[in-house]
Amino acid sequence: MQKYLKPVILTLLLVFLATFLIHQINLPTDDLGRHIKAGEIIVKDFSVPDTNLFSYAEPDHPFINHHWLSEVIFYAFYSTIGFSGLVVLKVLILIIAFGLVYYIAIKRSGFWTSSIFAFLAILIFVERTDVRPEIFSYLFLSLYLFIFYLYSQGKQKYLWYLIPIQLLWVNMHIYFFLGPFLILVFLASQIIKSKDLTVWQKIKLHFNIKSGDNSSIKKIVIVAFSIFASLLLNPNSIKGAVYPLLVLKNYGYDIVENKSPFFLEDLMVNPSIYFFKILIILLIVGIVLNHRRITLFDFLTGAFAIFLGWFALRNFPITALLALPVLSVSFHQSFEKLFLFLKDKLKGNLKFIEFGFSIIVIVFLIVISNANYNKQTEFAKAGKPSGIGLTVNSESSAKFYLENNITGPVFNNFDIGSYLDFYLYPESQTFVDNRPEAFNVEFWQYTYIPAQSDWDWWQVFSAHYQFNSVFFGHTDGTGWGKTFLERIIKADAWVTVYLDQHAIILVRDTKNNEKLINQYEISTEEVKKRLNNYKMDKATIIENKELEESRKKGFDYINKLLGPGVASY
Hints:
mainly alpha; 2 domains; 4-stranded mixed sheet
């Protein structure tokens, strides 16, 4: 029976991971709707759009779609299996990705060491669990690491598979730059590979191709060259290849996921940040104590894992995948010494103790997996009900909007933009969606944000664009979003006609909307009451007495966009 305990524990660890992944899609706040619609456009037009076609505010702004192939896959799954199929696809991809790295760790450092750190890695890996193009990056990264492991076992022929993997990667997600980075690190580690050198000596050693097996080195060089060449095989050629180097420029709009976890820890409660700190400490300690045993590849990827996680919250899954094998290898010797010490002290009783420990671990994993699936643990994803398909009322607001034939320009916020892209295009366009790189910096600084934080500016701005409706995701946590919502629901010129736990819809109080208003009007007091029931944070009105310059720049921007003389200040 004892020989089955380890496979059971391995399976339960992956089940524990799955409890984070099997959750419904909250379509109003996810990016998925836009990805599906973009995939549909690409399939039907047989071309990848290079402008911001979803937005009427900046339809001609150039846009590099670095994940177009992922969107085609999402559209294919959605059109054949639906949203439930997309959840299943995501779960399978992420379990395979993590499972491959877990397998590498076990093979390199043993079961117990790897399993202990796998549990920690899972709690960091699950920072991002939605259906996004990045799930393919996690899979490709794991395949890279797995192929490198096979190479170390003498199976060098698999190295050639990195070329088609990279070709897919460059067209599926912006993390594709990790492929070239990893092959260069792998090449460097093979060139200066020597059992007699410590990792510190390896770093200082001048690269000398004669120190390695020339035939093997040449093969890696050819593969590396092919990987770099494949970066050009995307719809935007050289611009698409260098895009990761440029994408983090100033958008004019901050995104939480692009912030450092150490910046965010005082602003939000996120258990993954706590576990990331533990990982950093363990990784540094492990490398320092066992630097003679780890490879240069381990050292560099471990350091890079810390850097990526430190740099941005969105990199946590990559950090977990890169760090797991390094952690396991660096602590393997320490665990072995502990095992030998216990074996000497406990003599024949060690097997019984290991058996008892295994049973305790199995019970623990079953209990915590059940609690996590039922959202009873602190690190379970709040607001993401377990299961597949869509959350309750995910489609309701869009259906209400369409079924009541609400027409004319719509003003919407960042959070709900991709949702509206999915339902409104091509019959109508949205004002904005959650792609900060698809809009000018000036748009965010002098139009979008001031329109919500400065009520006087909103009046002029609304008049110029002739907004007929406001479609707003009221879970917006920005100060300007809360300020705008607090004001718009009390404005005489606007009437609330729809409200659920995701979105609020208001229409302008005009003759054309009279029938809709008479049928569906929700009073201001009722709106406030229901928003409070949805646990919306109390809005704090932004009173800024230094908005003159911002308004002037906003008018200048509108005139530039719509033509001279359209707006006057």
